[in-house]
Amino acid sequence: MEKAMNNVVKVLGSLFMMVSATANAALISDNSFVQAGFKDTSTGLVWMDFGINNGQSYNYVSSQLASGGEYSGWRLPSADEVYLMWQNVASLDEVEADFESPDEYGAGQLYAWDYNSRVVGGDDSVWDNNFAVMGVNSVSGTAFMERGTAIGFFMGDNGLASVKFNDVVDKAGFPAFTHKDELALRDDGAYSDFFLGLAHESYSTLLVRTASVSEPGAAAGFAAAIVALGWRRAHRRLRTKNKLK
Q1: Is residue 46 within 8 Å of 39, Cβ to Cβ?
Q2: What is the largest CA-CA distance in the chain?
Q3: What 3 state SS string does 12-59 have?
Q4: 77: closest CA among 222, 209, 239?
């Protein structure tokens, strides 16, 4: 069975590589809807910008998706869609971050960080181009740096889960400090039901909608990536169970 699945993944991987030449993953702004979003060009999915529904609870946002609701036209994403989107944001196969852990909290639950340049205005981590189109939930800082933070809730495989990023700008260029940008996805049961009703500016709810897919092969690439991601996570769980026997 495992050999057969490996062959399937190889075929899908080849398909994905064939279409990727004309449908490379990239994030671009998308303002074609009432609420702004960023589009993952590899999937054709548009994700609501951070900083729009923050301050509203997951339960409230979920109640506003029907016709006539505040977020009519959007929907809650599946866990697989979030995993794939966040992998595309991190793009760990394409960039060289200072620290990369693709399975830090479990299969596909990544954590990574990358330093900004130690100069005044240093804001040049490997993800800054992506952060620039995603929005932010809250901003804080000190005399030395400014930090934009976004935490987005979604319903994962183990209940409420989240993605998070910190985008830091160096304000002083002080030689003793180097400020880093961070990315994480956690789907390991870290949140209690209390957070379903929490309304706080630091937290938002991930929402998605489908845009017209103009990039050649994007649909095929998305299907291949989803199947490969699902198999990878299932294979990781199987290996874990075998170790416990």
Answers
A1: yes
A2: 58
A3: HHHHHHHHHCCCCCCEEEECCCCCCEEEECCCCEEEECECCCCCCCHH
A4: 209
Average pLDDT over residues 192-203: 96
Closest by Cα among 108, 109, 112 to 98: 112
Neighbours of 140 (CB within 10 A): 11
Question: What's residue 186's pLDDT?
Answer: 96
Mean pLDDT (whole number) for 190-194? 90
Strand partners of residue 27: 40
- Mean pLDDT, the chain, as a whole number? 81
Q: Three-state SS for 11?
A: helix
Comparing C-alpha atoms, which of 120, 92, 113, 207 is closest to residue 167? 113
pLDDT value of residue 215: 44
Give pTM, 2 decimals.
Answer: 0.76
Question: Which tokens go with 116?
Answer: 């900004």
